[in-house]
Amino acid sequence: MTDTPLLKVSGVSKFYGSRIGCKGVSFDLWPGEVLAIVGESGSGKTTLLNCLSTRLIPTTGSVEYRMRDGNFRDLYHMGEAERRFLMRTDWGFVHQNPVDGLRMTVSAGANVGERLMAIGDRHYGKIRETASDWLARVEISTDRIDDQPRAFSGGMRQRLQIARNLVTHPRLVFMDEPTGGLDVSVQARLLDLVRGLVNDLGLSAIVVTHDLAVARLLSHRMMVMKDGHVIEHGLTDRVLDDPREPYTQLLVSSILQV
Amino acid sequence: MYVAVKGGEAAINNAHELLADRRRGDRSLPSVTIGQIIEQLGLAVDRVMAEASLYDRALAALAVRQSRGDLIEAIFLLRAYRTTLPRFGASVPLDTATMKVERRISATYKDLPGGQLLGPTFDYTHRLLDPSLLTDEPVDEPKRKDASDERIMRVSDILAHEGLIEPDGEFPADHLAGDLTREPMEFPMSRDLRLQALARGDEGFLLALGYSTQRGYGRNHPFVGEIRIGEVEVEMEVAELGFAVSLGRIRVTECQMVNQFKGSSKAPPQFTRGYGLVFGQSERKAMSMSLVDRALRAEELGEDITAPAQDEEFVISHSDNVQATGFVEHLKLPHYVDFQAELALVRKMRADIEAARNSGKDLQEAAE
Amino acid sequence: MTDLATYNFAYLDEQTKRMIRRAILKAIAIPGYQVPFASREMPMPYGWGTGGVQVTASIIGPEDVLKVIDQGADDTTNAVSIRAFFQKVANVAVTTHTKDATIIQTRHRIPEQKLAEGQILVYQVPIPEPLRFLEPRETETRKMHALEEYGLMHVKLYEDIAHNGRISKTYAYPVKVAGRYVMDPSPTPKFDNPKMHLSEALQLFGAGREKRIYAVPPYTEVVSLDFEDYPFEIQKFEQPCALCGAEGVYLDEVVLDDKGGRMFVCSDTDHCEERREHGHAGAMLAPSKEAAE
Question: Which of chain C's residues have a Cβ under 8 Å away from the Cβ of B337?
Answer without folding.
Answer: 71-72, 108-109, 171, 188-189, 250, 252, 267
